[in-house]
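User: I've been trying to design a sequence by hand for this structure and keep getting stuck. Would you show me what you'd pick, starting by listing the structure so we're on the same page?

Assistant: Good idea, let's start from the same input. This is the structure you sent:
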């Protein structure tokens, strides 16, 4: 099969123009499309590579396209988000590929053909794995493998259909390939941090086996990462809800998860530089939190009555820094919650998805930060799980919170609760973010962070 990945050629100049009307309809419907609520006005081709010729039974194009949309009022000028697309080409789709349909091309080099999301199809998915296995270079694409790691050929692919902010394909219950959809130039933490942790010998993160990248205008783009598939695992959110439904205690699981989080933080501190945050840095950090609060209060009127009390959480942090208090910052997960962790049937926990918050600039996602930010994200996730199960879960989040922090302290030697001002600031900041998100996307969930907001605004410490 190796000959199928030696094709090297740029796409026909008319290809994107012929796909344009179809992509304008299809792209905004995808879970991973970041520009929802604004129409797509056009596309620019950043890079295009033919992986399988379109004159065969199944064609495959790898495209990096920039989607142009109207700039929101008051927003900075933006060239448009760049998306990674895998476009399959067939004469007609068999019924099994009906959910993958993008549309029927009416003009250009693919006129008369049907195009679709190629990851649903076995043949295109096999091509990607074979390219990673052989270390292929195809057009501007570079398929690379970690030395000493082997990839067996012939693994049967299946696309993961659960909602994700990216796309994933599982190969024979052996590997999972995560393809980043909204891509930016630079070193992506979703590859950088797991590689650093693997080389540090940390067992709590699946080690990257291979990856896909592009080099465009001397800028690196990480496009995908292949890692071992952790068969039989359950994500933390699903597990927590299952235990809540049975009225089972989650304290032991939360303690073990706290230990796993601390193991990852400890390994990252060994593998990558740490920095000390003094008055200037912490003042800037607190000011950023206050600014986010002010913007959130403008966007969500129900937040406004609590804003003055919430602001004290951030001013207290700035006051501590002004008195000479310093904090250590390091690389962290950046978007830690119950949906970003997996538990094995034997009780081991793994942390996954180190991309950070995709909406934030890459440089910001790669900045060293206090580890408490990750802790606060997980504590807020316990709160979400508890509230999703109704009144009978009262006290459940408190038990999880105590157990998680205790487990974290057992490994790190530092209990996050012993720095209550910092923890309070990060939990408050996270809850404010949640209020804005829920108000915009899931109004039925708004009561969850608003309940926390009311609690944070009426207690001195929590």
């Amino acid at each position: 099969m190796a000959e199928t990945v030696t094709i090297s050629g740029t796409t026909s100049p008319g290809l994107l123009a012929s796909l344009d009307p179809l992509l304008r309809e299809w792209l905004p419907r995808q879970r991973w499309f970041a520009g929802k609520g604004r129409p797509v006005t056009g596309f620019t081709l950043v890079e295009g590579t033919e992986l399988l010729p379109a004159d065969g039974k199944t064609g495959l194009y790898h495209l990096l396209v920039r989607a142009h949309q109207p700039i929101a009022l008051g927003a900075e000028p933006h060239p448009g988000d760049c998306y990674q697309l895998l476009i399959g080409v067939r004469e007609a789709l068999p019924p099994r590929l009906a959910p993958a349909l993008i549309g029927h091309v009416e003009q250009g080099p693919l006129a008369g053909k049907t195009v679709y999301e190629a990851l649903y199809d076995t043949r295109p998915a096999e091509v990607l794995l074979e390219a990673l296995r052989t270390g292929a270079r195809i057009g501007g694409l570079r398929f690379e493998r970690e030395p000493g790691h082997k990839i067996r050929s012939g693994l049967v692919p299946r696309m993961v259909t659960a909602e994700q902010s990216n796309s994933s394909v599982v190969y024979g219950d052996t590997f999972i390939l995560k393809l980043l959809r909204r891509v930016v130039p630079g070193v992506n933490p979703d590859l950088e941090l797991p590689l650093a942790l693997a080389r540090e010998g940390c067992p709590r993160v699946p080690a990257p086996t291979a990856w896909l990248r592009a080099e465009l205008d001397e800028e690196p783009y990480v496009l995908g990462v292949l890692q071992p598939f952790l068969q039989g695992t359950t994500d933390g959110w699903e597990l927590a809800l299952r235990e809540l439904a049975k009225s089972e205690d989650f304290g032991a699981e939360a303690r073990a998860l706290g230990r796993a989080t601390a193991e990852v933080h400890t390994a990252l501190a060994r593998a990558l530089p740490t920095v000390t945050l003094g008055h200037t840095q912490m003042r800037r950090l607190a000011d950023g939190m206050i600014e986010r609060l002010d913007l959130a209060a403008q966007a969500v009127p129900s937040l406004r009555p609590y804003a003055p009390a919430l602001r004290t959480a951030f001013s207290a942090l700035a006051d501590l820094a002004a008195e000479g208090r310093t904090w250590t910052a390091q690389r962290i997960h950046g978007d830690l919650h119950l949906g970003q962790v997996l538990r094995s049937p034997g009780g081991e926990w793994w942390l996954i998805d180190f991309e950070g918050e995709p909406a934030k600039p890459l440089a910001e996602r790669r900045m060293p930060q206090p580890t408490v930010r990750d802790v606060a994200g997980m504590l807020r996730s316990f709160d979400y799980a508890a509230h999703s199960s109704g009144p009978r879960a009262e006290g459940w989040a408190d038990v999880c919170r105590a157990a998680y922090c205790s487990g974290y302290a057992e490994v790190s030697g530092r209990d996050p609760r012993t720095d209550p001002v910092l923890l309070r600031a990060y939990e408050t900041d996270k809850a404010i973010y949640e209020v804005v998100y829920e108000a915009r996307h899931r109004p039925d969930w708004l009561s969850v962070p608003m309940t926390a907001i009311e609690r944070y605004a009426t207690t001195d410490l929590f």
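That's my pick for every position. To get oriented when you compare it with your attempt: The chain is about 40% helix and 20% strand. The domain at 234-458 is CATH 3.90.1200.10 (Aminoglycoside 3'-phosphotransferase; Chain: A, domain 2).
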